[in-house]
Model the fold of this input.
Amino acid sequence: MDVGYVGEDVEQQAPPSTASCSGACRGEFRFVWKESEELMLEFAAHMPGWQQLSRADLRRHWCLRLNPLWWLCIFGCAACILLGHGFHGAFRQGGAVRSDEYEVERRARIWWVYCYSGGFVGTVLVDVVALMSALASESNVEERSRTVRSCIVAIMIQLWYMLGDLNLLFMMSRKDTVLMHASAISRVTFGAAFLVAFVIGLLTPAGQATFHHWAEGEPDSEAGGPPPRETAITWMIRLVFCLFMVVAYLGYTPLLQLDYSEAEPLAQAAAHRGVWKLKVALVAGVVVVAAEGFMFSRGPGLYMLAAQPFFVLGTAYLMEDGKLSGRRLLASFFALLPFVLVGSGFAACGPALWEILAGK
Done:
């Protein structure tokens, strides 16, 4: 793995030709296109049969050059990185986290943090437009209220993720290993938690009824009418998108192998600790949330809320190999927070969780 120092804020350097606004825009577009292509090549390099190919050979491979889906993926990643770079730039995070930024940090920052933040910037903008449209519409009051609630819930969830990305880059800039690991792990557990909720909805009768209600628009006495079809579709897309967020496991694993307190940041022991935390958090979180989802598919069970602290404490103990402190416990809590919230949602709401996400 390349751990070398980047040393300079390369993406914010501007050659003489970019002094004008148009030149700066061209430089930004070249930057996001180059990085999105490198990100897609990273995926391609892990494909069976292509692992021995160099980057130059992959670029020239006919399966990629003549594949419209390949170019569509690059374009999509470039759009997300562009939006994410602008978002983080507004918070003075548009460049290297430090003057001695490592290469693995640079890749995580651009390929994963900027890319995912940019995706959520786009969906937040769509939800804001839908919210404004619903507020200005003269449609049925109940339908309008449902759409407004759904948009607000969606915006809050997405802002939560984006704030986590801001926090991750901040912890990287401070070289805070414990909290940086916790923030990076929470990026993956966020997608895993909502993906589990989506899968449970497809497998349980209550969830299937709710999804059928969304898709077919059939009113029933309890729901009081179906949500708008557009609302259901956007939530399905958002939950399916969580599947791609779990792929971030590949991107954040190198970041979890960093330990700023070690003389050699990527020492083998340090690498083992970070990846171990992620594996424990994912396995424990998925198992517990799935169990809660199936347990409460018929109705809520508030008594399980009292078990959440024990879930966090036990998982944190395993993540830290028994070496718990107040600070490490807090870090583990933030890493597991997506699982805690989704599990608590199942316990408090039962099968109504899916309807609440739809704004009912």
Summary: The chain has a mean pLDDT of 80.
